[in-house]
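Appendix B, Record 12. Input sequence as logged:
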Amino acid sequence: MAKANKETPLMKQYNQIKSKYPDALLLFRVGDFYETFKEDAIKTSQVLGIVLTNRNNGGEQTELAGFPHHSLNSYLPKLVKAGFRVAICDQLEDPKLTKTIVKRGVTELVTPGVTLNDEILQANKNNFLASVWIDSPRNGIAFLDISTGEYYVSEGDNPYIDKLLQNFQPNEVLISKKQKKNFEELFGNHFHCFGLEDWVYKKDFANDILTKQFQTSSLKGFAIDDLPNGIIGAGAILHYLSETQHHQLQHITAIKPIANDQYVWMDKFTVRNLEIYGGQNAQSVSLLDIIDKTLSPMGSRTLRRWLALPLTNLERIQRRHQIVSYFFENTEIQENTRGHLKKINDLERLVSKVATQKITPREVIYLKNSLRAIIPIKSSLINSENEPLKALISKIYDLQELCDKIEQILNEEAPVNILKGNTIKDSFSNELYELRNLSESGKNYLDQMLEREIKNTNISSLKIDNNNVFGYYFEVRNVHKDKVPENWIRKQTLVNAERYITEELKEYEEKITHAQERITSLEQELFSNLIQDIILYIPQIQQTATIIGEIDTLCAFSTLALENRYTCPKLDNSYIINLKNARHPVIEKQLPPTQPYVANDIFLDNDTQQIMMITGPNMSGKSALLRQVALIVLLAQIGSFVPADEAQIGIIDKIFTRVGASDNISQGESTFMVEMNETALILNNLSQRSLILLDEIGRGTSTYDGISIAWAIAEYLHEHPTHAKTLFATHYHELNEMQNEFIRIKNFSVSVKEVKGSILFLRKLIEGGSEHSFGIHVAKMAGMPQYVIEKANSVLKKLEKSHQLETNKEHLSSKDKEGIQLSFFQLDDPLLQNIKEQIMNTQIDNLTPIEALMKLNNIKRMLEGKK
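Logged structural output:
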């Protein structure tokens, strides 16, 4: 009978630990290597490009892939960025002190959303872990960045949760296992999701774990009482941190609500269409790329957060503008402030490392030097006459005492690893000073001993050395070995020499070794005490870092304005957008230096010019014009100056865009279906302060269908009680007729000039609609073969002639025409027949009150004979 395979002790231990972390790659420390086995080894070798080999496991061959332990910081980021959760299993005891297998355990579980590793984190971007609890219509969501301690919570319907996920871009999302499928159906499958047990998502459990973290009796002080589902999501995050072996969380000191009525609503389509964080391809330049002039990681992350959550509170926006104006007008102070900001390291992430006790001595020096760089910023700005700036600066804590303490204890050139020594100053500890003296005087002692023994033995080539096996020893070449004293003890014979020890050497070695061990132990103890002292300052450092992030961002806005001729917008509570010589902030920076950007005026309000109907050919600049209005509003409401000569902006609370569409074939949706879904979301969420950008609505279907839908949408927006401001770019020149029928629709076009059979794009917005699409001209400019151009012109003439004949044939008297819809709808019924059909075809059960009023108003207008 064949012997049954027997598991080795090492693999038995591995399997026991792996069973606790089935969803993670287990990096198993064996001596100087981290090793992975079985399926983990196959995945690891593929991601890292390292050799996959085998090891014997009681007669079986087990896949193995490993790397040296000192390479962890190189390989770990690659595994996490590939989407893996990685459990780091370390040796928990010294192998020399045990005769059995070394005790091992997982010391940290690193996931895409939970890491403190600098190689994984991006300095200018948060690393958010999100948690979602689906309980429509009030779903809960929470975000935490463990590397900075920022913690947010909110509630809302599905589109709102979708918007927050898009804006915060979490690296990992926690979800109840039972809701995972539902989550993917609602929000897509492109997130790194991890399922937790259903019992974690309970209100009482969440409340207990949160109050324990914040050491409070309730959550009332955080203004999140009215967000029960959000609290459930937030509690799941803290549970997950505990499960991933993150227990030192003193830097998570508060949780903030995201109140959706305080920020501009932008759905995920708008964030994508406006290319705020990134474009449609890798080469695209985003708004963030252009406007980010910040100098500190805190400032860069603050700017991202402000872009995700533009303000609707007029007073808060104006305070930001006042601070930007101060720096803009006082360039010397601005340059001085930016000079100090350059010296500030990532305070938020350094203080998180303090809390988790993963900070190195050198990083504590960075922390101290960063806090020192803040002192002159505060002293130079605290006495400014700018009240909002003074109020902001007053929130910066005086941390001079902490800086002095760190300076008193640590050497300025402290090492990355405390085991390298020379971390603590001699002057701080008498014991350390004496031990170092003992250690350093040892060399002199050895030199004297060697000199004495050479004299006593007459062995001129005698030398003293040491290694890890014997410690200190005398080495005697073979030609002199007959001169060796009898009391020397031989320890090793080499080819050309022999090595000896003496009682005196052993005594010296014990003394020196004890001193070195005590130095290491004492330095670790003193450094640990310093970290405990710094922990007491965590809330003050965090608040100071937050304010520095804001100062940096506002100062950067002034730099942006000075470099690019931006002006301070006038924001108010009106319903007007009035822009003079407005420019697109991104496109103007992409033009050659010799080509000036063609600026345009824009005026929108809710009473006289609610809808600007903009026609013009492709490439004429319609889409850029639409986007630039939204981007200017967005910049204004985050506190920045704007690219325009003048800008009056009545607060906007929602920005909607329907700009371009790509087929979502993978989910069975055509371009037209995507377009209609996005447009429906807009029409169902209108407000008085909405800004809507519609580009080429209806182009995804047949011409008559497209014209009909575009007309109906424009009419709906016009008749809707909100009178939401709209920029409507279209190829359908027939829509120009809407100006005659609807008093708040005005026609505009982007001018072009026809020169000798080709066109010149002037990109200037002028009043009046365009009557020509110039599509064939654009095709010619694109290099289309001449045959295609000539044939297209021929077909166009035939179609125009045919359309003219059809129009004459169906021509109606002016009296009848008043009671009929426009001819392109191909309806020729008399007025009453038309009204009858409208009423008969109305599905009353599905009609909202607003739609009913609008339909009634439409019929009334028809009867009054108005166009």
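The longest helix spans residues 503-535.
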